[in-house]
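> forwarded from #structure-qc
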């Protein structure tokens, strides 16, 4: 029985050296105790855009279900301070 070693192909390493790493992360944020009259997409969207790039408003938030909190998904740049 012969043993074979895995092929060691490192040609892809050159691409890593030439690319910059984007340090961004999509996160869900809860906004607690938001007054019911502020449960509007445009108002919640403004909050999201002040923190990062707005991706989505949670469907439950958009119908202000139970009014416990608003939930949004944003992209934040990890290289910038909030």
């Amino acid at each position: 029985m012969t043993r074979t070693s895995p092929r060691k192909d490192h040609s892809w390493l050159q691409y890593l050296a030439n690319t910059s790493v984007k340090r961004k992360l999509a996160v869900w944020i809860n906004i607690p105790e938001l007054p019911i009259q502020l449960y509007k997409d445009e108002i919640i969207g403004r909050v999201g855009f002040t923190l990062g790039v707005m991706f989505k408003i949670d469907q439950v938030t958009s119908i202000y279900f139970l009014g416990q909190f608003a939930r949004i998904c944003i992209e934040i740049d990890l290289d910038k301070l909030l």
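QC bot note: The chain has three helices and three strands. Residues 22-77 form one domain.
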